[in-house]
Protein backbone atom coordinates (compact mmCIF):
# COMPACT_ATOMS: atom_id res chain seq x y z
CA UNK A 1 0.00 0.00 0.00
CA UNK A 2 1.52 3.31 -0.99
CA UNK A 3 1.17 6.49 1.02
CA UNK A 4 0.53 9.63 -0.99
CA UNK A 5 1.46 13.10 0.17
CA UNK A 6 -1.27 15.68 -0.46
CA UNK A 7 -0.63 18.92 -2.31
CA UNK A 8 -2.69 22.04 -1.78
CA UNK A 9 -4.23 24.08 -4.59
CA UNK A 10 -3.65 27.82 -4.41
CA UNK A 11 -5.35 30.69 -6.20
CA UNK A 12 -3.33 33.71 -7.29
CA UNK A 13 -5.28 37.03 -7.30
CA UNK A 14 -2.18 39.01 -8.25
CA UNK A 15 -3.80 42.35 -9.08
CA UNK A 16 -5.18 43.22 -5.66
CA UNK A 17 -2.70 41.32 -3.54
CA UNK A 18 0.19 43.76 -3.89
CA UNK A 19 -2.05 46.60 -2.71
CA UNK A 20 -3.41 44.59 0.25
CA UNK A 21 0.08 43.74 1.44
CA UNK A 22 1.19 47.36 1.18
CA UNK A 23 -1.77 48.37 3.34
CA UNK A 24 -1.02 45.70 5.96
CA UNK A 25 2.72 46.25 6.15
CA UNK A 26 3.25 49.95 5.53
CA UNK A 27 6.58 50.00 7.40
CA UNK A 28 8.27 47.81 4.80
CA UNK A 29 8.73 49.71 1.54
CA UNK A 30 10.03 46.76 -0.49
CA UNK A 31 8.13 43.54 -0.11
CA UNK A 32 7.92 40.61 -2.49
CA UNK A 33 5.17 38.02 -2.23
CA UNK A 34 5.83 34.45 -3.20
CA UNK A 35 3.01 31.99 -3.60
CA UNK A 36 3.58 28.83 -1.64
CA UNK A 37 1.85 25.60 -2.49
CA UNK A 38 4.07 24.33 0.15
CA UNK A 39 6.49 26.58 -1.83
CA UNK A 40 5.38 28.20 -5.03
CA UNK A 41 7.07 31.56 -5.61
CA UNK A 42 6.13 34.59 -7.76
CA UNK A 43 8.06 37.85 -7.38
CA UNK A 44 6.13 41.09 -7.95
CA UNK A 45 8.48 43.92 -6.92
CA UNK A 46 11.74 44.75 -8.70
CA UNK A 47 13.71 45.81 -5.59
CA UNK A 48 13.88 42.18 -4.43
CA UNK A 49 14.25 38.87 -6.26
CA UNK A 50 13.05 35.48 -5.07
CA UNK A 51 13.40 31.85 -6.10
CA UNK A 52 11.41 30.62 -9.13
CA UNK A 53 8.18 28.69 -8.59
CA UNK A 54 8.21 25.22 -7.08
CA UNK A 55 5.85 22.67 -5.56
CA UNK A 56 6.76 20.30 -2.76
CA UNK A 57 5.02 17.47 -0.94
CA UNK A 58 4.15 17.38 2.73
CA UNK A 59 7.19 16.32 4.74
CA UNK A 60 9.71 17.67 2.25
CA UNK A 61 12.03 20.58 3.00
CA UNK A 62 12.49 23.73 0.94
CA UNK A 63 14.75 26.78 0.83
CA UNK A 64 13.20 30.11 -0.17
CA UNK A 65 15.81 32.56 -1.46
CA UNK A 66 15.55 36.34 -1.45
CA UNK A 67 18.07 38.88 -2.75
CA UNK A 68 17.92 42.64 -2.54
CA UNK A 69 19.21 44.59 -5.51
CA UNK A 70 22.09 46.78 -4.36
CA UNK A 71 20.15 48.75 -1.77
CA UNK A 72 21.62 50.18 1.40
CA UNK A 73 18.85 48.71 3.55
CA UNK A 74 20.30 46.75 6.46
CA UNK A 75 17.32 44.65 7.54
CA UNK A 76 15.48 41.81 5.80
CA UNK A 77 12.33 40.00 6.88
CA UNK A 78 10.17 36.98 6.04
CA UNK A 79 6.38 37.02 6.43
CA UNK A 80 3.67 34.48 5.66
CA UNK A 81 0.00 34.89 4.83
CA UNK A 82 -1.34 31.37 5.49
CA UNK A 83 -3.80 29.99 2.95
CA UNK A 84 -6.30 29.06 5.66
CA UNK A 85 -9.49 31.14 5.76
CA UNK A 86 -9.39 34.31 7.94
CA UNK A 87 -5.59 34.20 8.25
CA UNK A 88 -3.52 37.32 8.76
CA UNK A 89 -0.04 38.34 7.70
CA UNK A 90 2.49 37.02 10.25
CA UNK A 91 6.15 37.86 10.64
CA UNK A 92 8.40 34.77 10.65
CA UNK A 93 11.94 36.19 10.68
CA UNK A 94 13.78 39.45 11.16
CA UNK A 95 17.44 39.71 10.26
CA UNK A 96 19.89 42.59 10.52
CA UNK A 97 23.27 42.74 8.81
CA UNK A 98 25.98 41.31 11.06
CA UNK A 99 23.54 39.70 13.52
CA UNK A 100 21.96 36.27 13.95
CA UNK A 101 18.43 36.25 12.45
CA UNK A 102 15.51 35.88 14.86
CA UNK A 103 12.77 33.35 14.11
CA UNK A 104 9.52 34.33 15.82
CA UNK A 105 8.19 32.21 18.69
CA UNK A 106 6.03 29.34 17.54
CA UNK A 107 7.95 28.91 14.28
CA UNK A 108 11.38 27.80 15.57
CA UNK A 109 10.62 24.08 15.27
CA UNK A 110 10.94 23.83 11.49
CA UNK A 111 11.63 27.35 10.16
CA UNK A 112 15.27 28.47 9.96
CA UNK A 113 16.90 31.54 8.43
CA UNK A 114 20.38 32.27 7.21
CA UNK A 115 22.14 35.46 8.18
CA UNK A 116 22.11 38.18 5.55
CA UNK A 117 24.99 37.11 3.32
CA UNK A 118 25.92 39.82 0.86
CA UNK A 119 22.51 40.96 -0.34
CA UNK A 120 20.70 37.63 0.23
CA UNK A 121 18.77 35.74 2.88
CA UNK A 122 17.36 32.20 2.85
CA UNK A 123 14.31 30.88 4.69
CA UNK A 124 14.43 27.11 5.22
CA UNK A 125 11.28 25.15 5.97
CA UNK A 126 12.18 21.71 7.25
CA UNK A 127 9.64 18.89 6.89
CA UNK A 128 6.80 21.12 5.68
CA UNK A 129 3.26 20.61 6.95
CA UNK A 130 0.09 21.29 4.98
CA UNK A 131 -0.68 24.22 7.28
CA UNK A 132 2.61 25.83 6.13
CA UNK A 133 0.88 26.55 2.81
CA UNK A 134 0.43 30.21 2.10
CA UNK A 135 2.02 33.24 0.52
CA UNK A 136 5.56 33.94 1.70
CA UNK A 137 6.90 37.47 1.52
CA UNK A 138 10.43 38.75 1.70
CA UNK A 139 10.85 42.39 2.74
CA UNK A 140 13.69 44.81 3.31
CA UNK A 141 13.93 47.95 5.38
CA UNK A 142 16.47 50.49 6.54
CA UNK A 143 15.13 50.17 10.10
CA UNK A 144 17.63 48.82 12.60
UniProtKB/TrEMBL annotation:
<keyword id="KW-0472">Membrane</keyword>
<dbReference type="Pfam" id="PF07686">
    <property type="entry name" value="V-set"/>
</dbReference>
<keyword id="KW-1133">Transmembrane helix</keyword>
<dbReference type="InterPro" id="IPR036179">
    <property type="entry name" value="Ig-like_dom_sf"/>
</dbReference>
<dbReference type="GO" id="GO:0002376">
    <property type="term" value="P:immune system process"/>
</dbReference>
<dbReference type="InterPro" id="IPR013106">
    <property type="entry name" value="Ig_V-set"/>
</dbReference>
<dbReference type="InterPro" id="IPR050413">
    <property type="entry name" value="TCR_beta_variable"/>
</dbReference>
<keyword id="KW-0391">Immunity</keyword>
<dbReference type="GO" id="GO:0005886">
    <property type="term" value="C:plasma membrane"/>
</dbReference>
<keyword id="KW-0732">Signal</keyword>
<dbReference type="InterPro" id="IPR013783">
    <property type="entry name" value="Ig-like_fold"/>
</dbReference>
<dbReference type="InterPro" id="IPR007110">
    <property type="entry name" value="Ig-like_dom"/>
</dbReference>
<feature type="domain" description="Ig-like">
    <location>
        <begin position="43"/>
        <end position="144"/>
    </location>
</feature>
<protein>
    <recommendedName>
        <fullName>Ig-like domain-containing protein</fullName>
    </recommendedName>
</protein>
<keyword id="KW-0812">Transmembrane</keyword>
<feature type="transmembrane region" description="Helical">
    <location>
        <begin position="27"/>
        <end position="48"/>
    </location>
</feature>
<dbReference type="GO" id="GO:0007166">
    <property type="term" value="P:cell surface receptor signaling pathway"/>
</dbReference>
